[in-house]
Amino acid sequence: MTNENMILRVTDVAVHYGGVKAVDGVSFDLRQGEIRGLIGPNGAGKSTVIDAISGRHGLTRGTVRLAGQDITRCSVIDRRRRGLARSFQRTSIFPNMTVSAQIGLAAHKVGAEAPEQDARRVMDQLDLSGEADATAGSLGYGQQRRLDLALALVGRPIVLLLDEPMAGLSPQESADLASHLLKLTGDWGVSILLVEHDTDTLFSISNSVTVFELGRVIASGRPEEVRIEPRVREAYLGSAA
Ligand SMILES: Nc1ncnc2c1ncn2[C@@H]1O[C@H](COP(=O)(O)OP(=O)(O)OP(=O)(O)O)[C@@H](O)[C@H]1O
Ligand SMILES: [Mg+2]
After folding, report:
1. Which of 37, 169, 211, 228 has the fewest CB atoms below 10 angstroms from its CB?
2. CATH of segment(s) 1-83+158-241
3. What is the DSSP code string of 173-225?
C-alpha cells in the first residue's frame, strides 16, 4: 500500500497536560473507505487523540496529514472544510428544530455547495427522510444518534471521527448504526476512525484495530490478529475475548 492511499496519517502524536502524558507518541494510518477501530481502557488516550486530530487542542509533538496535506496547524473549521468531520453526540441537537432544518443549517455552516440537496442526500443515506419534519427532541435515542451522524456528514467529508457513537444504544440500535457506518464506507468511500467500548461491534465492522494503553499503542493490525495478542487480552479484552 503506497502512502497516497492513506487518507489520514497520524505520526508520532503526543499530547501532554503538564506532567500527564495523555497521548505519547502515537502513529496510525487510515485508508480510503476503511474503518479503523480504536480501543483501550478508560483514560488510555482515545478521546484525546480524536480531539487532537480534529484540532480541538494542540499537539505537544507529531503531525496529522489529511489526503496528503499537513493539517497539523489548521483550525477546526479549516479541517472540517478540508473534509475531516467528527460527531458531537447529543450536545449538538436543538430539541425544537426539525431534523431537516437542523441538517440543512449544518450544511450551510460548513459551506456545502447545495445545502438543501446535501441535507436530503444525507437524510436518505441514513434513513432519516421519514423523520424530516419531526423535531429532534421527539426522536428515539437511536434516531438521535443517526441525526448526530447526519450533522457530521454534510459537506461530503472524507474522514469521520466518531467517539463512542454507540454509547447508550440497545444492541439492536447499535447493530443498526454499525450497518449504516459500513454502508457509508461502501457507498460514499468515507473513512472512519471509530472509538467504541462495544468491542464485539467494533471488531465486527473494523478493517483494522489499534489498541491504546496509557497513551501509547500496544497493538495494531487486522481485527483477528489483534484479538489474539496476549498483551491485548491482558490489558483490555479479558480472557473471554
Ligand atoms: N483537559 C485535561 N487535562 C488534564 N488531563 C486530561 C485532560 N483530558 C484528559 N486528560 C487525561 O488524559 C488521559 C487520557 O484521557 P482520554 O479522555 O483521552 O481517555 P479515553 O481513552 O478517551 O478514556 P475513556 O474510555 O474513559 O473515554 C487521562 O489520564 C485523562 O485523565
Ligand atoms: Mg474517551
Report:
1. 228
2. 3.40.50.300
3. HHHHHHHHHHHHHHHH--EEEEE-S-HHHHHHH-SEEEEEETTEEEEEE-HHH
